[in-house]
Amino acid sequence: MDYSYFKDTRGDWWWQLHAPDGTVAMDSRGGYSSEQECVEAIKRIKGSDNASVLRQVDAPPPSAAETSKETATQKTAEKNKTATITSDYNSVIPDVTLGDGPVACVFTTKDKQLRWRYKANGGVVPFRLLCAVSEFDSIMTTVAVSVPKAYRKATYHHLGKALFAAFHTPDGTKPGKEFKKVRLFVRKKAKERARLAYVLASLASVAALALVVVPIYFLTAASNVALVALGGCFGSVGATISVLQRNPLLELDPWMSTRYHALEGAARIVLGFIFGGIFVIASKANFVLGVISDNSYPLLILCIVAGFSERLIPELLSKLESSPSNSAKVKKNDSLEE
Question: How many Cα neighbours within 13 Å face the side chain of 142?
Fold first, then answer.
């Protein structure tokens, strides 16, 4: 038995496990974004970096329609098949053993990789366990993308234990439920990674704004424009306080890229800067709290509040838009048009 991999018409890479007669015994159940990811997935499933043959072919992935044409007799026979996934155990150096028994061995290597070896039946993995191997590969791909390196060791520990338990599920029991806790753990760590990127980008953004705005204010302290910029800087401080306070409650997609979460954090600080500047302008124009427009200290404190509150300035603008004077002007314009 050997593996093949190919690129479909959408640009995704797939792998397949072929039986000696050429039929497909197992596939990747989904495409990978690059050839390297696909090849690495095959290596993980085989249990080591030097296993059976890899070859690239030109063929479409198996369709659901073709699979559904199997007869009931063929399906029964398929369940009894076994797939040989060879593993060169001597090509890697085990570091920590996560499970070792007469059926299988799961371990981490000196180069911080998670590997496994199926020992029963001369290294022949029963067909019913291939779904557990595929689930293991899927989680490994997610870990490589979404879990911080600091948590890889703990993640590999939970994942290796789950794979070892899946290999030892008794006949007639569907393997795979052992991976549910691992997926929850991976999602939790991915969320922590997303929050960290969000907060660090927020802190970097407010620091950059302060380094630019504060020197300009002291060089042109008499300028109203400088006061608006300083108000915006204090608004960004308020936005930072809001981010730090709500950090445990931030609802972020853990599967998005780190750059996207960093952009979200920077955008929140920019909004705080804009809100702070708008508040200074509104106060100077006597739209809101004009009595403090000449007193910088309470004005800047309220700029912090404006940056902290995500709804204060939008609600203020809505009130200005729906004020009686504006309504009167709208009615006057409507009457003139008539």
Answer: 23
Q: At what angle do helices 296-308 and 224-246 cross, to 10 degrees?
A: 40
User: Is this structure's pTM higher than 0.90?
Assistant: no
Q: How far is CA 190 from CA 109, 139, 246, in A?
A: 24, 12, 18
How many residues are present in the chain?
A: 338
Strand-pair partners of 236: none
pLDDT digits over 67-105, tens only?
444 444 444 444 444 444 444 444 556 778 888 888 888
Q: Phi and psi of 96, rounded to 5°?
A: -125, 125
Backbone angles phi, psi at 29, to 5 degrees: 65, 10
245-290: pLDDT as tens digits:
888 888 888 888 888 899 999 999 999 998 888 888 888 777 766 5
Which value, to the nearest 10 degrees, does the dihedral of the CA atoms of residues 167, 172, 174, 178 take?
A: -50
Q: Which residues contact 110 (CB under 8 A, 6 or more apart)?
A: 92, 93, 94, 95
- Which among 40, 29, 272 is positioned nearest to 132, based on CA atoms? 29
- Secondary structure (DSSP) of 248-280: GG----TTS-HHHHHHHHHHHHHHHHHHHHHHH
* CA distance linking residue 246 with residue 251, whole number of Å: 10
Q: What is the dihedral of CA 138, 144, 145, 151, to 10 degrees?
A: 110
Question: Are 146 and 190 a contacting pair, CB within 8 Å?
Answer: yes
Strands 54-56 and 24-27: unpaired
Query: How many alpha carbons fall within 13 Å on the CB side of residue 294?
Result: 1
Are 87 and 47 in contact by the 8 Å Cβ rule? The answer is: yes
> How many whole angstroms separate alpha carbon 110 and alpha carbon 291?
69
Token pair 């549910």 in the structure block, residue: 180
Using CA atoms, how far apart are residues 124 and 187, in angstroms rounded to an integer?
Answer: 32
Distant-in-sequence contacts of 269-272, Cβ < 8 A, 24+ apart? 269/202, 269/205, 269/206, 269/209, 269/236, 269/239, 269/240, 269/243, 270/205, 270/236, 271/239, 271/307, 271/310, 272/235, 272/236, 272/237, 272/238, 272/239, 272/240, 272/242, 272/306, 272/307, 272/308
